[in-house]
Amino acid sequence: MKRQRASQLTSFLVVLPSLLLVGIFVYGFIGRTVLTSLSDWGRDPTQALALSPVTRFVGLDNYRQLFTGIIDGRFRQDLVSTVFFTVFFLAGCLGVGLLLAILIDHKPRGEAVFRSVYLFPFALSFVVTGTIWRWLLQPSGGLNQLPPLVGLPAGEFTWLTSRQQIWRFDWNAMPVALAVFGGLAMALLAVVDLRGHRREPRRRRRGLVAAAASVALLAWAAVWGRGWAPLPFGELHGFNLAFIGIVVASVWQMAGYTMALYLAGLSGIPEELREAATVEGASGWQLYSRVILPLLAPITLSAMIVLGHISLKIFDLVFAMAGPDNAYTDVPALLMYITTFRGNQFAKGAAIGTILLVLVALIVVPYLRSQLRREVDR
Amino acid sequence: MTRRTAWFMAAALVAALGATTARAEEKLEIFSWWAGDEGPALQALLDRYAAQNPTIKVVNSTVTGGSGVNARAVLKTRMLGGDPPDSFQVHAGQELIGTWVVANRMEDLSGLFRSEGWLKQFPPGLIALLSAKGGIWSVPVNIHRSNVMWYVPANLQKWGVQPPKTWDEFIATCAVLQGKGLKAPLAVGENWTVNHLWESVALGVLGPEGWSGLWTGKVRMDHPKVVKVWETFGKVLDCTNADASGLSWQQATDRMLKGDAAFNIMGDWAAGYMSTTLKLVPGEGFGWAPAPGTGGTFMMLSDSFGLPKGVKHHDAAVKWLKLLGSREGQDIFNPLKGSIAARLDSDLGKYNAYLVSAAKDWKTNTVVGSLAHGAVAPEAFASQFGTVMEIYLGSKNPQAAASAARAIADQVGLGK
Question: Among A105, A109, A243, B351, which is least packed by CB within 10 angstroms?
Answer without folding.
Answer: A109
